[in-house]
Amino acid sequence: MPDQGRESFGSIEDFMSYLASVETSVESEVERIANSIDAVTDRISASLRSAIGDSAWFPDAKPLPPPPAQVVARPVGYFEALSDYISRHRAVTAAAVCFLGTGALLIWRQRRGNRIKRRAKRAKNGQRTEIVVLAGPPSAPLTRSLSLDLEPYGKSG
Questions:
Q1: Integer Cα distance of 91 and 93 in angstroms
Q2: 3-class DSSP state for residue 39?
Q3: Nearest 5°: phi and psi at 73?
Q4: pTM of the shown model
Q5: Contact at 8 Å (CB) between 146 and 134?
Q6: CA–CA separation, 109 vs 22, rounded Å?
Q7: Which residues of 84-95 are buried (b: 16+ CB within 10 A; e: fewer)?
């Protein structure tokens, strides 16, 4: 019993002609469906146009555009411009003040620490109580460098 719905192809040419016929039938079906969709959408749009055109709840004209925004004149002075910038950019200004204030505090503490000179402690009679002894020949580079480094802190000799 031969299969119904199946076709047997004797050669490639038979198969290619079958594919061409399937292609044309698919194209015609797709075109028919597209035309029916177009017809339905045209009917829907026509009914919507007539329903909306007859209704009274749509305004006849577009609303007026809002009036143009007023231009605020910017201050011309340096101080006024700076205060205006600060009032408009509060977060940026606060971050800058914190950053610069912390940096200034750190620099001030570092420079204050450099000004304090280390001196040997003094006894009640005024003589120094701490003594540093450098052992080595005075002509040696290390001994000479250390003695020159310690000289500003007290008497050397």
A1: 5
A2: helix
A3: -75, 130
A4: 0.29
A5: yes
A6: 91
A7: eeeeeeeeeeee
Tokens 């029916």, located at residue: 36
* Integer angstrom CA distances of residue 54 from 30, 44, 59, 98: 36, 16, 12, 67
- Reduce the DSSP state of residue 33 to 3 states and report it: helix
Tell me the one-letter amino acid at 17: S
Q: Which helix (H) or strand (E) holds 145?
A: helix 141-150
CA distance 115 to 107: 13
DSSP letter at 126 equals: S
For residues 149 and 143, the answer to whether their CB atoms sit within 8 Å is no
Tens of pLDDT along the chain (157 residues) come to 445 555 677 788 888 888 888 888 899 999 999 999 999 999 999 988 888 777 766 666 777 888 888 887 765 788 888 888 899 999 999 999 999 999 999 999 888 877 766 666 777 887 777 777 888 888 889 888 888 888 776 655 5
Q: Sign (positive/negative) of CA torsion 122, 124, 126, 132?
A: negative
Rounded CA gap, 153 and 121, in Å? 11
What Å distances lie between residue 111 and 24, 114, 144, CA to CA? 92, 5, 28
